[in-house]
Amino acid sequence: MDYILFLRLSLDQKIFNREEIEQLEYVNKDRLAELISSENPSNEKYEFSPWFLLIARNFLLKGESWSKIESIDQITDKKIYKL
């Protein structure tokens, strides 16, 4: 994988390919934390790529990233992170 792209879209915008995505669910920060928790028995219903889990746990759910999602340009730091 070379790039990972995060987008902000309105809920009525559909830009995904149904042949590539089996299930789609919009979640808030607390729900995402619950879904990716290894202690959550319901997470067996969901599959996340290892890359997504690394990004979610190290960036999305830490610090101010989620609260600044409305102004994503404010959290751009132009760093390359080694995970």
TrEMBL record:
Name the source's superkingdom. Eukaryota
GO cellular component entries: cytoplasm
Q: Name one GO molecular function term.
A: isopentenyl-diphosphate delta-isomerase activity
**Signal peptide positions (record):** none
* UniProt GO BP: isopentenyl diphosphate biosynthetic process
PANTHER family registered for this protein in UniProt? ISOPENTENYL-DIPHOSPHATE DELTA-ISOMERASE
Q: What is this protein called?
A: Nudix hydrolase domain-containing protein
